[in-house]
Each structure stands twice: as structure tokens, then as C-alpha cells.
Amino acid sequence: MDIPHEPVRPALPAVRRVNAFAPLGWCLHALTDLQRAWLPALFYGVAFVVMGFLLFGLFARSPVMVMTLSAAFLLLGPFLAAGLYAIARDLERTGTASLRVSLTAWRGNVQSVTLFAALLAIMTFIWFRVSLLVFALFATGPLPTLDSLLTQMFAPADATLLVLWFGIGLAFAALVFVVSVVSIPMMIDREIDAFSAMLVSLRAVRANLPAMLVWAALLAGLALAGFASGTLGLAVTMPIAGLASWHAYRDMVSS
């Protein structure tokens, strides 16, 4: 009599340790990739700029919405940069990259990428609701404008509100960072389910905490530089972040 066997799950990819300053090397590789494939990469950069313009244009009179949606924009960043991962992958494998191929990069593992995108969307929606709730419960006067945000953070009346808002936003961002730092590049690169990819991402962060702190700071700096330039800088900073993320994945996860 045949004895039924449970299907054996494939072993998860091994995680490698990297130097604390390895993220600087990833960014240098990204700059090289940007030079080699500037046209398809800048297509995504311009897309980020357009989204930024729409964000500030549609909600210019509602600083709370701008702040909340800006954070949501960053939470969804790993998914929005999927095409950039494909560009870096193709440059590594063949020396050339195609915009057309990058636009459909997710189709090779559509189920996993779609599930992960849905999870990111749910987390973003939760952040959106929590953010509005915090402002509704703790705002003691007129909400700060974008121009006065940093000034009012140190004003006694709104300091608690804004510190709490930034603290909760940081917690959401940290969670997204931990589960996505290598997961989407991995799903673009190989056949792996979303939850396994997130587990590998968690292991990569745990094994390389100093490097991940440096990497998170660099990503935040690139995003802030892009927004500080009226979103025009996103045309360059977001492609750098996306291309560098591919090299982070290749450096920390075994083939």
C-alpha cells in the first residue's frame, strides 16, 4: 500500500551577511546602472514625479492629506519600483535593459507579486485610517500647513500630535521595510511565494542589522531629497533607490 507523503516545501534561499557600509556600494552600482540604462530608468523616475505632482496638486489645501498620502506613497514604493528591479536584473544578466520587458516583469510570478501588492495596499489603507484618526483625536487647533510643519512640531500645542503621528508612521515604515527589503526583487527574480519571500526578507534584516540601518537611512534620504526639490528630484532619486535595491537583494540572498 502506498503511503501518502506531504509535499516537501523547497528550502528557503540562504541569507548572507554584508558589511555595514555595503549600502553605499549598492548605490554606486545603481549609479552605474542608471548610466547604462538611463532611458528606461528615467521613465520610472518621471512616473514618480508625475505622481508627486498629482499628490501635491490635488491635495494642496489639505496638508494632512498630503502628509498622509506622501507616507502611503513611500509605503508602496517597493512595489512601484518593480520595473527598476527588472532593469537592474537584465543589466546584470545580459548587459542590456528594455523598458517593454521591465513593464511586465511581475508577470513571471504574478500570483506572488499580486498577493504582496495586496498586502502592501492593506497596510497602506490601515496607515491612512490610523493617520486621520490621530489627527482627529489629538489636533488642538488649526492643522499645520506644509510650510509650518517643522516649526509647529516644536510648538507645545501640536508637538504631541505630530510626534505621535511621525512615531506611528515610522512603525509602519519599519514593518514595510522589514518584509519588503529583498522580497519583491526576489519574486521578480525567482519562483517563490510572497510569504516565503517576506520570511527571507526578515532573516536578511535580522542578519544584517547595521547595514539595514544604513540602508534605511539612505532610502529615507533619497526620498526626502526628491520631495524637497518639489518632487522633481524623484526622477533621479527613485531610480537610484530601486536599482540599488536589486543589488541589496543580490548581495544578501544566495542564488
SSE arrangement:
Layout: H1 22-36, H2 38-58, H3 63-75, H4 77-80, H5 82-94, H6 99-103, H7 110-138, H8 149-153, H9 156-180, H10 183-189, H11 194-207, H12 209-228, H13 234-252
InterPro entries: DUF2189
Protein name: DUF2189 domain-containing protein
Keywords: Membrane, Transmembrane, Transmembrane helix
Quick recap of the structure?
The chain has one domain. Helices cover 75% and strands 0% of the residues. The chain has helices spanning 22-36, 38-58, 63-75, 77-80, 82-94, 99-103, 110-138, 149-153, 156-180, 183-189, 194-207, 209-228, 234-252.
How would you portray this structure in words?
With 255 residues, this protein is mainly alpha-helical. It has one domain. Helices cover 75% and strands 0% of the residues. Helix 1 crosses helix 13, helix 2 crosses helix 13 and helix 5 packs across helix 13. The longest helix is centred in the middle third of the chain and has 29 residues. It is globular and about 55 Å long. The mean pLDDT is 83. InterPro entries: DUF2189. It comes from Laribacter hongkongensis. Keywords: Membrane, Transmembrane, Transmembrane helix. Pfam families: DUF2189.
